[in-house]
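User: Need the bound-state model for zinc ion:
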Amino acid sequence: MSMRPAGYAVQNISKHVWKLPGDSNIYYLDLGAKVIIDTSERPQRAKMDLFLSKFVDFSKIDLVIFTHFHLDHVGNFDAFPNARLVASRAEIEDFRKDVYGAVLDKNLAEKFKHANLVAIEDIQLPRGLEVIPSPGHTRGSICIWYPAEKILFSGDTLFPVGIGRTDLPTSVPDEMPKTLAKLTQYNFKTLCAGHDYGLEQL
Ligand SMILES: [Zn+2]
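Assistant: Bound-state model below.
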């Protein structure tokens, strides 16, 4: 039986967390500060405008956290006019070295080059969120831990079934085992992954 959500309606994950499911998922957290984790791929913009905008005014988003810079996570980086755009310093460094290798889409990389990116290490995160450096899928991948509700936002590092690829231009395959070992120490109740790979089989 398929558990893939019908349509693209926004799902409530917990008291403070919502999800716009798609081929790539977008998460919205209302922690006083309003936070988006990943922005899916560019063609999802219409669905964001149709559904996610009913839950939050995009101009009120304070912070957009990118787990990494692949095209299906930064596709709508420009949908939130007043947000700070943050990712790990390593991810930003690799992007500056090779924009295509980091994004995997030339047109999007050209647009994204003009974004004002801030290292997540240099900002004060909203209270209750922690960054877990998670090199593997990309060198600069991060997961976000929300201990109050035991939610792990895992980007493309960990899926409901399986793990992210480590054969892409900014991947560091040798680091993935250490990252996965680290993640097993987080006692998460809910996995909020970048993609729902595997759910169809459960
Ligand atoms: Zn990815």
